[in-house]
């Protein structure tokens, strides 16, 4: 089990604020400059905080550059803020950190509406531009969902593959596709991969909610589905990325809990076999959840047959 852990967006107990934004009506050039400068300072502080925790996997908030893909932001922000962006990237590289983005549900490459696909392309271009300005290469990823199926899943998957293939290489090399709890089970995103080569991020909670229609009837189990997703990653893409969270029992299926159940995570980590993977914890308690899981894993180590006191998530990129 060689699993490195990370968390997403905004730490709870340290670091800086990197997701401040404003209303569209107030997005003047001067206000955007102020917000971007503050967010970049906050991200730099967060990475320093993460270094102190030995956390080297981190998802950047999509609000780092407010309205980065919207016409209201007329700044050439990647040029105006070239120095702090490059400094953040240099620090990440020096400390062996891997950074990523995860645009929301409206970044839908499978949509039948050209304007939606165009907007998604702008979102991905903006995220790739941040990574590029930081000097971060192909291993630093932008995770997307498949979008809807629009009443015709095969056609939607074909559209996704066609749009992905048409992306500029400087954008496409960062883009990876994740299974979800509604429309795209692991088998579906693997079918998209077969069409276009996009690497697949395996989300364990999504898979538990949506394992696919054939699951449980002699079809491959979770370990096989996970292994198939891990095989979609090329050497240049870096370690395969995965997501893990526990179910919040008070909410609807697929809702993330505050913390992570160590026994469930250990079973998931065992399914990765000898493959070194990166795992983003999508837990509401952010770095608190990561630190608690580390401690829980260390306590469980003799039960799992690993070296006592050796937490699984250690290690650099």
List the helices and strands and how they pair.
Blueprint (H helix, E strand, L loop, with lengths): L1 E7 L20 H25 L3 E3 L17 H4 L1 H13 L3 E3 L13 H20 L8 E4 L7 H14 L2 H4 L2 E4 L7 H11 L3 E4 H6 L12 H9 L10 E4 L17 H10 L4 E6 L4 H19 L13
Helix pairs in contact: 1-3, 5-7
Give keywords:
317 residues; alpha/beta; TIM Barrel; 8-stranded parallel β-sheet; 43% helix; 11% strand; globular; disordered C terminus
Helix content: 40-55%
CATH level 4 superfamily: Divalent-metal-dependent TIM barrel enzymes
Indicate the CATH class. Alpha Beta
Instruction: Specify the biggest β-sheet.
Output: 8 strands, parallel
How many H/I helices?
Answer: 11
H-E string: EHEHHEHEHHEHEHHEHEH
Question: What is the distance, rounded to the nearest whole angstrom, between the alpha carbons of the first and last residues?
Answer: 16 Å
Return residue spans where pLDDT drops below 50 for at least 5 consecutive residues.
305-317
Q: Quick check: average pLDDT?
A: 93
What's the short story on this structure?
With 317 residues, the protein is an alpha/beta fold.
Question: Can you walk me through this structure?
Answer:
This protein is of the alpha/beta class. The chain has a single domain, classed as TIM Barrel (Alpha-Beta Barrel), CATH 3.20.20. It is 43% helix and 11% strand. The chain is built from eleven helices and eight strands. The protein has helices at residues 29-53, 77-80, 82-94, 114-133, 153-166, 169-172, 186-196, 204-209, 222-230, 262-271, 286-304, and strands at residues 2-8, 57-59, 98-100, 142-145, 175-178, 200-203, 241-244, 276-281. An eight-stranded parallel β-sheet has the order 3-2-1-8-7-6-5-4. Helix 5 crosses helix 7 (186-196).
